[in-house]
Amino acid sequence: MTLQDLIAFAGRNLMMSLALAGITVALVVTEVMRLMQGWKTLKPAQLTGLINHDNALVIDLRPINDFQAGHIAGSRNVQMSQFDAENKQLSGAKSLPVVLVCKTGQTAGGAAARLAKAGFEKVYVLDGGIGGWLGADLPLVKGR
Length: 144
Known about the structure:
Residues 52-142 form the Rhodanese domain. It is built from six helices and five strands, in the order ααβαβαββαβα. With 144 residues, the protein is an alpha/beta fold.
């Protein structure tokens, strides 16, 4: 297939060619934005490694009732409505891995972006949130 054949094909199939170009641009833009966001997502198994080997600070952003019903061992509860990058529980943690956990992994991204902007070096969001943790058959502890 020559370049002329490709151009002729695109001309005969204009809508399909435009759709392909649009999807390609959307994928590239999405990937660039993900790389520049300043934080990463972690799978539950990766989080256990960070907790066990890198002294990760796990912040659970769910409401206190949800936190008390079950949370990752060693995590601290800071409700999303009270979350601030200058929170006293986060002081001194700018060089530590900080992992944010919410219910589904969807709302922690905003808090992660604030931490990254405030100069935290290793910011992560648990992929799937507590639901992802439970889906990986990992335990929760109850109470405070």
